[in-house]
Design brief:
alpha/beta; 19 helices
């Protein structure tokens, strides 16, 4: 049996100009990065501005487990299936971060015969977008520390600087550091730290910006820190927003690649969903809607994180209206949620599966709260039994959700035909009555509590003293009308990763609140979530290698 990377390396790719032609793009619309990757230039946005929008389909999932769910694989396979049905479809995905690639996941370009290619390039440096974001963010930090060194005429309090440096790699040793050591010539000593690039506000801003001028405005509005008198200082006060935007002049352009079956795919932006808003760029999604009849996008991790933020943050900012949501699940993951240990997941256990389906039910109910029709995609494994499949189908039927077994991992687009037909049926019935979970004008605390109780199922919210203080401060500064980005574990509906299934009788704790004034949301950090992840005991990096012919192995 071939591995994912072997399947990708054996694929016969079309030149990217031919992929662009499927979306009515001309060769001059593309800035080429070799034969199989390109950026789409600004002329396309202008030319397609008055095109009729296609249908927007969101793919999300139940809470992830070690058993796997395959959300990206389903997204890609669904696009391939649409193509086989004669529909003009485009896929819109996020760019992988090097953190999980070398940490636990080992790659994020789909799997089996539902992959985007060239997968090695996509998983590694790709077109350099994440490096540009890292550079722009760290330029901001360097200018701030230089300001302290050069006299600090703004009176910035080094104890109240709110921005940390970033790196696109899991490195727990950099979470808390001291800089400026070694004497006067090396800067002003102070405590600092690193976040992972995909948690950067610069990343969030690029993904939520609609143009380079919009991006520059958002960058200028990033809160940097406070003066000794408590006055907020922003990037614009340090006059570096123009230089930051200049570093991002190419990164703001969506990237065009293809699936194994030649379906066009726009990959752009990569904010994490457990610590950021977890969606690809507005520009890529909106362009996909202009270029195709169906734009299929995904939101990170489970629907309690990615989908909630997709609706309340991205759709609100961009004016997007989804026509259908695909909720990905597996029998194995549902049994794991029902208490079955990993080594026993291959055995039929309808009782545990039924218990684990409480997690599935919670996500279906939550998605209905946004007024969108739902189709459950059961990502098929050969160990799934007919009794187990029927169990999941019966539950979906009782909730009025569509249901289809997907075999896109093994059979590519052909394995997703039934799923595509279910999705098309939901889209064509135009039954979406999309709405937001909360009104933007209610308080930040009420927004947090609405998400906690209505989406997570919590009994309430507790706040650490510093979090309460921050909420009060941000409201006083005029940011009480921003949406909230919840940063929490992806493994549970709660803020405790060990509470599987559908937890009851719990409260969530907000330990910290950060303002992303440029990106336009407030981040509530729950439980023990980290903005700089660490590597596991045996990182994926140990399995990745390259031979003298440039053939990469171990990337899956």
């Amino acid at each position: 049996m071939l591995t994912d990377i072997e399947i990708a390396q054996n694929a016969k790719l079309e030149r990217v100009e031919a992929i662009g032609a499927k979306l009515s793009l001309f060769p001059d619309d593309l800035d080429l990065y070799g034969k199989y990757k390109a950026k789409i230039n600004e002329e396309v946005f202008k030319r397609t501005e008055n095109n009729t929008d296609g249908k927007l389909i969101l793919v999300t999932a139940i809470n992830p487990t070690p058993a796997g769910e395959g959300k990206t694989t389903i997204t890609i396979g669904l696009g391939q299936a649409m193509d086989k049905l004669g529909k003009k479809a485009v896929i819109a995905l996020r760019e992988p971060s090097l953190g999980p690639v070398f940490g636990m996941k080992g790659g994020a370009a789909g799997g089996g015969y539902a992959q985007v290619v060239p997968m090695e390039d996509i998983n590694f440096h790709f077109t350099g977008d994440l490096h540009a974001i890292t550079a722009a963010h760290n330029l901001m930090c360097a200018v701030v520390d230089n300001h302290l060194q050069q006299g600090n005429i703004l009176g910035l309090d080094p104890r109240r600087i709110t921005v940390k440096r970033v790196l696109d790699m899991n490195d727990r040793a950099l979470r808390n550091i001291v800089i400026g050591m070694g004497g006067k010539a090396n800067g002003v000593p102070r405590e600092d730290g690193f976040m992972i690039t995909v948690a950067s506000e610069v990343m969030a801003s690029l993904c939520l910006a609609e143009s380079i001028s919009d991006l520059k405005r958002m960058l200028s509005d990033i809160l940097v820190g406070y003066t000794y008198q408590g006055k907020p200082l922003y990037v614009r006060d340090f006059k570096v927003q123009g230089a930051m935007a200049a570093l991002l002049k190419d990164a703001i352009k969506p990237n065009l690649v293809q699936t194994l079956e030649g379906t066009p795919c726009l990959i752009h932006g990569g904010p994490f969903a457990n610590i950021a808003h977890g969606c690809n760029s507005i520009r890529a999604t909106k362009l996909g809607l202009k270029l195709a009849d169906y734009c299929i996008t995904e939101a990170g991790f489970g629907a309690d994180l990615g989908a909630e933020k997709f609706f309340n943050i991205k759709c609100r900012k961009a004016g997007l209206v989804p026509s259908c949501v695909v909720l990905v699940a597996t029998v194995k993951a549902l049994k794991y949620n029902g208490g079955v240990p990993m080594e026993e997941l291959r055995n039929e256990n309808v009782e545990a599966l039924t218990a684990g389906c409480e997690n599935l039910k919670a996500h279906i109910e939550n998605l209905y709260k946004f007024g969108v029709p739902v189709v459950v995609a059961l990502n098929h494994f050969y160990t799934d039994t007919e009794n187990e499949i029927n169990c999941v189908k019966t539950i979906c039927d009782s909730y009025g959700a569509g249901f289809a077994v997907s075999d896109v991992f093994a059979d590519g687009g052909n394995g997703g035909i039934k799923l595509a037909e279910k999705v098309l049926d939901k889209c064509e019935k135009n039954s979406s009555a999309f709405n937001f979970l909360y009104d933007i004008d209610i308080s930040l605390e009420k927004k947090i509590e609405r998400i906690a109780t209505d989406i997570y199922g919590a009994d309430g919210v507790t706040y650490d003293a510093e979090a309460k203080k921050a909420l009060k401060s941000y409201t006083k500064l005029g940011y009480g009308n921003l949406p909230v980005c919840m940063a929490k574990t992806q493994y549970s509906l709660s803020d405790n990763k060990n509470l599987l299934g559908r937890p009851k009788n719990f409260k969530i704790n907000v330990r910290e609140v950060m303002l992303s004034s440029g990106a336009g949301f407030v981040v509530a950090i729950l439980g023990d979530i980290m903005t700089m992840p660490g590597l596991p005991k045996v990182p994926s990096a140990e399995s990745i290698d390259i031979d003298e012919n440039g053939i990469i192995t171990g990337l899956f």
